[in-house]
Design goal:
single chain, mainly alpha
């Protein structure tokens, strides 16, 4: 099936941003003023916000395309997420007792590293319960008052995997309710706004990310309607700029919204047959390849980062922060991509095919009305932080 190449490229770029952000934090570049004009790179949580918006778009498109029942949809989604997640979870759990030792070795003990050390000690104090809860992919639903830090234990970036899984479990119902009921969509928006007047459970609780999902869902409905219209480039660009301006006015950090609307506008332009340099860049083999292996990049990179940093400190030694950061970043990105190629071919691709093969047969033939697009994932410390600072950290 044909993919929307702009969104495939977006997935890859956001996954690489997450890798870069975690490297910068563990090499001491999370402090104020450490990266003038580029401090956003040390905030990988912004990339996860984009992932969540993309997920809302993608999942509603798939539901609109496939006309699957709940069991068929969830079966395919399970085989998309779980096999690689399980492998990374097991490896991370085995290495978890060594993680505080590695963190203590880091030469610059910034705020991010100190928080990670706290999380690591709390995780190891209840490693078996954390592991059992993580096996369900519903660890984001467990309050910290019962098991802390549930969302962020063992595989810290997997809080967003729990968010995705929670969304998948209810997405068919949401699609049924919102598809042809504008008043229900307005009610959903009002509900999310009301819920966000307080912070529930933890960053891994899907409702806390409901606003980002709804933006993606609304974007899909707009995209679907625009397929029947012929728009000029100026109309699309002006609408995109207006959306970005609104996000800048109403949100504390408009960058994720700006990124999302830029890629969405590029996708709409392509849909209208208007080719542009941005879409040509997204069509490149490198961007498309990074998009295909983005889930592996996202899940595997923390293990790779820890191994690379430890090896550099153990065998090459620490000279200066810039040198350590460049060495760590270069090696981590290269090795993560290499590992991700392997995990995609050996784990992801076969299990995706298996999920499609064993799922229950759909009751209705798929619609050809819309263009299918790729999957999205997506996507840290929160027990000591509020929602905004937790997502900024991650």
């Amino acid at each position: 099936m044909k993919r929307i190449t702009e969104f495939e490229a977006l997935r890859g770029l956001m996954a690489l941003w997450v890798v870069v952000g975690h490297v910068l934090r563990e090499t001491g570049y999370d402090s104020p003023g450490a990266l003038p004009h580029f401090s956003f790179l040390a905030r990988p949580g912004l990339a996860v916000d984009v992932f969540i918006m993309l997920s809302g778009f993608v999942i509603f498109n798939l539901l609109d395309q496939q006309h699957e029942d709940w069991l068929s949809f969830v079966t395919r989604r399970f085989f998309r997420l779980y096999p690689l997640y399980l492998v990374v979870l097991i490896v991370s759990a085995i290495l978890s007792p060594l993680y505080p030792v590695y963190l203590h070795m880091l030469p610059i003990q910034g705020e991010a590293v100190r928080i990670l050390e706290t999380l690591a000690h709390q995780t190891n104090a209840a490693l078996l319960p954390h592991f059992l809860v993580h096996l369900t992919m519903l660890h984001g639903l467990v309050p910290n008052s019962i098991l802390a830090p549930s969302s962020l234990a063992i595989v810290r970036q997997a809080w967003s995997i729990s968010v995705e899984w929670q969304f998948y479990l209810v997405a068919p119902l949401l699609f049924f309710l919102l598809r042809d009921r504008p008043w229900m969509f307005a009610l959903a928006v009002a509900g999310v706004v009301a819920i966000h007047t307080r912070y529930w459970l933890d960053v891994g609780f899907a409702i806390n990310q409901g606003g980002f999902f709804l933006i993606g869902i609304a974007s899909y409905f707009v995209y679907r309607r625009l397929q029947a219209l012929h728009l000029e480039t100026a109309h699309i660009v002006i609408a995109g700029l207006a959306a970005i301006a609104a996000a800048a006015y109403f949100t504390r950090d408009p960058l994720p919204f700006a990124i999302w609307w830029i890629f969405l506008c590029a996708a709409v332009l392509s849909q209208q047959g208007i080719r542009n340099p941005f879409s040509l860049f997204c069509d490149s083999a490198a961007c498309q390849t990074m998009g295909r292996i983005s889930y592996s990049i996202y899940l595997c990179h923390v293990l790779v980062l820890s191994g690379i940093s430890y090896s550099i400190l153990r065998f090459a030694g620490y000279t200066s922060r810039p040198v350590f950061a460049i060495e760590t970043l270069t090696a981590t990105v290269a090795v993560t991509i290499a590992v991700s190629f392997v995990t995609f071919r050996l784990i992801e691709a076969p299990c995706i095919a298996l999920g499609a093969k064993i799922r229950p047969k759909p009751k209705f033939a798929p619609s050809q009305a819309d263009t299918p697009i790729p999957d999205s994932i997506p996507s840290t410390p929160t027990l000591l932080l509020d929602q905004a600072s937790a997502k900024t950290f991650y």
